[in-house]
Every structure is written in C-alpha cells, then in structure tokens.
Amino acid sequence: MSEHRSPWHASYGPGVPTTVEVPDEAVGASLERAAARWPDRVAVDFLGAATTYRSLADQVGRAAQVLLELGVEPGDRVAIALPNCTAHVVAFHAVLRVGAVVVEHNPTYTARELAHQLADSGSVVAIVWEHTAAAVLAVQSETAVRSVVAVDLSADLPRRSRLALRLPVPAARRTRAALRAPVPDGTPEWHRLVARSAPIAPDHPRPSSGDLALIQYTGGTTGTPKGAMLTHANLVANAVQGQAWTGAEPGTGTIYGVLPFFHAFGLTLCLTYASRIGATLVAFPKFDPDQVLAAQRRRPGTFLPAVPPMLDRLAAAAEATHADLTSFRYAISGAMPLPRATAERWERLSDGYVVEGYGLTETSPVALGSPLSPARRPGALGLPFPSTDIRIVDPADVAHDVTEGELLIRGPQVFAGYWNRPEETAEQLLPGGWLRTGDIVRMDDDGMVVLVDRIKEMIVTGGYKVYPSQVEEQLRAMPGVQDVAVIGVPAGDLGEHVVAAVTLDEGASTDLSAVRAWLEPRVARYALPRDLVVLSELPRSLIGKVLRRAVREEYLTTHA
C-alpha cells in the first residue's frame, strides 16, 4: 500500500507509520514463527501454570488432529464457549489450523441464547466449558452440532492448585464448584482427547489469507444480533496495525488478558496480537483485582487492554495494598469513554500511558486510537490507525461530507459482511469498501475524532435532536451522581421525552428538580430530563458498557 498522508497523520506517535504492509498469510503463521523463534518463552500463564510457545504449538497441533478426527473440514464452523484459559487459546488456533471457522460464544449464555447462535452459524462441533455443556446439549437437536466436547477448566491450573481442589474444606469446594460442573456420561473431555492425539501432519493444508476465520456475533450497527464475518486477512491486518501503533518489541511484552477472549476486543489484543509479537499472555478466567495483583507480583505485566471500570477497580486495589503497577508501559481502554480522572489516576500509579481505542466487531475491532505519546487525549476516540481511512458524512446522504456526522471507515481490517445476511451487509458496506458505523462524530483540528453519539440512540423531542452522551457527560459531573444513562421514551406529538437513569454514590440522594437545576446552565432546555429514575445499578454489556437499550426497555416496562 502506498504512503499517503491525511490531516491526522501529523499527530501520530513517534515512529508510527501511515500505512502498514499486511502479509499474505493466515493467523496461525505468527504462532508458528513465535514457536520457532522463542520456543522456551512463556506463551500463556494461566493462574501460575506456564505454557511455553513450543508446548502451545504442540498442543495446537494435537488439538487440530482431534478436530479432524471429529470430522471437521475446511469451512466448517466450530463453536467455542469458554472463559479465558489456556484451553481457549489452544482451541482457537486449532480450529484455524484445520481451515475451519471459529464461532465465539459467551459461556454464561442461556440455552436459548446459545441455540439461536449455534443454529444460525451452523456449527458442527462445540468446545464448551463444563458449566456450559448442559445448556448446549439441551438445544443440540435444534442445531447442526454433531459433537459437544467438554472442557474441565481446572485441568489448566498448576498441579499444586489442582491438588488443593481435592481438599475437604469449604474454600476448596467453592473453588471447585466455580471451575467445574458435572456433564453427562459419554461426553468427550477436551484435555484427554488432546493429550492422547498425535499432532496434525506438518503438510496438512493451511488456510489462505482470504479464507473466513471467525464469526463474531454482535449487535452491530443496527442492534440486531448477527454474525460478523472476519477473514484471516482482517485479523492479521489488525494485529499488524496494533504492533505498529504500540511499537511493541517482539518477544518482550507481557499482556494481561482480563478482557474476555470471546469478545472482539479481548480476542484481537489477547490472541492474535499477542502471538504476532511473541508476547506472554497472562490469562484470567474472570476479572478479579486481587487475582490480577497476585499475578503482577509473580509475572509483571507491560500491556493492559481494559475498560474504564477495570482500570478504576485495579487502581483502587493497588492503592489499598500499595501494589506496584509501574511495569505497565501502556494500557488501552475501549468500549466506553475514558474519564479524565480515571486516566490520570492510572498514569500516576503505572507511570505509563493509558489511551483510548475505538472500533467495532466489524473492524476486527480496532480502527482508531489515541497516540501513545504526550498528545494522547482522554475522552477522544483518537486517530485512524495506519492504512485506515475515514469520512464524516451526512447520515441521510452519505455522499455528502460534513464536519459533524456519521463516521465511515475503510481499511484492511473491515469485515467481509454479515453471515447469511446479504441485505444487511449491503446496508452497512457501501461501494468502495466504506463501513457505516452508526456513530456520530466530529474531527478536531489535530485530527482527533470525538464521539458525539450513536445514531440509533439519538433522541428527537419537539423536533430537536438530543445526543444522550452530551447530557450524560454533564450529569456525570454532578456531585453524588456515580453513573448515568439518558434515554428517550415515547411522548406522543412531541416525539420523545428525555429520561435520566442514575446511580448514586453511597449516602447521596437527588430528585428531578435538582438534576434539572444542575443541567439547566449546561445543556439546551429541550435536552433537560422530564423524568428521573434512581437505580441501584445500570445494566451493562459483557465488558462493562452501559446498555441504554436495556434501560429504556426496563423503564417502559415499569411505567406502562
């Protein structure tokens, strides 16, 4: 790709190129290189159990042969429903090695949620946590799944930890119950299958860069759950872009895997990016600040992909215990705005940068980022990644560029479309490879892109447009308010009324008149809430983003 410069390139961090060369290879090539170059380097640390790159490559080869013996063929879909663990890393790479397609699922989903996704993808094999096995088996007849393989999470623990689980004490029983669950007799067990298998033949055909690698289910830009199709080239491109952005020195980094691997954010930064730079991945089955700090003492981290609430909780735990976070050179925050106070606190404790990244599942997922330099700016989405182009257009006329409008993205990380949904693909992927994001943004003079709001969540009241995030930003600064979600609800001829749902600091109280008084000098009069709801907590996504849609549904249900 030829060099070209746009307004934002001048604000790039030191040494970051404007374009990257994306190699013509599959995702697994980087793991094979890492195993050859750093065979004794720790690839995965799971609660103290270290797996070297040599061992990881061997396990992936054996697991790939297991899949072949289960009848998996190139192009087949294989479901993975696992917490973060070594087995998840092995299964992910093994599926790709045989030319099949990974379909990631939340292991805590209900049977009905899993049934929809399994049936829609047409997965033929499901590799699932023991806690998830019963739900999958209950709906198996409604899907194309031929084989369900159960994963004993405790099998990935260090030997001493496995032995401790057998102790006849309450703590051991609780831990054992959290990790394990009974499965029906005859259900094959993943670790046993892998241990007994021979490795896949070295000359077994590998997938090509253009082949489909991943189906990632997402609410997407329209709110309808559907499978985003990501090719090997998409995933490789985003890992290469991430390496260029961070300037990572191969074979030296330690990435903390606190984000779920089944989410696009965690998958790219903890699975594909990690193997490309030969990093050590410290994997956690769930986010637990005490567990993270224990790992920090054992194997200090250098890079933390996270969401703001994780940064806040980890910083608070570190301050309370005087833990040392200074090994972290940088953190990348996503999924929601990064408050300035959170950024300043993290940088004070870690002495490293924390920057925001922006993306969608449809962009593999990172498309923009704040520079890892003094030019970073909390609250801004950042600058387009290398080899990534953007436009800001009128949502009603995408041929017309504007200063504040819908963000369009084009680059090698942009997905191939939605699985079995050609009409929705055509709506989102425009001629020329431009992806409609559904986000309203503006670009400042330095090239920084700033989020205004989601098109679908814009409120129209009395003919005026209200962007919820702008009201939320002001209300979040009100003393006593912990967090807030602003929604629109039907209001007859007026269109919609603005409603604020808040959570409060301990001991705080407020009412509608106080909220309106606080906001009156800060937002337009038509943006003032007509109703206030105080909640104990706000509904959130898997990675902590406030779900305005769920708040709205709950409000309409209780105020019908």
Automatic annotation (TrEMBL):
<protein>
    <submittedName>
        <fullName>AMP-binding protein</fullName>
    </submittedName>
</protein>
<feature type="domain" description="AMP-binding enzyme C-terminal">
    <location>
        <begin position="471"/>
        <end position="545"/>
    </location>
</feature>
<dbReference type="Pfam" id="PF00501">
    <property type="entry name" value="AMP-binding"/>
</dbReference>
<dbReference type="InterPro" id="IPR042099">
    <property type="entry name" value="ANL_N_sf"/>
</dbReference>
<dbReference type="InterPro" id="IPR050237">
    <property type="entry name" value="ATP-dep_AMP-bd_enzyme"/>
</dbReference>
<dbReference type="InterPro" id="IPR020845">
    <property type="entry name" value="AMP-binding_CS"/>
</dbReference>
<dbReference type="Pfam" id="PF13193">
    <property type="entry name" value="AMP-binding_C"/>
</dbReference>
<feature type="domain" description="AMP-dependent synthetase/ligase">
    <location>
        <begin position="31"/>
        <end position="419"/>
    </location>
</feature>
<dbReference type="InterPro" id="IPR045851">
    <property type="entry name" value="AMP-bd_C_sf"/>
</dbReference>
<dbReference type="InterPro" id="IPR000873">
    <property type="entry name" value="AMP-dep_synth/lig_dom"/>
</dbReference>
<dbReference type="InterPro" id="IPR025110">
    <property type="entry name" value="AMP-bd_C"/>
</dbReference>
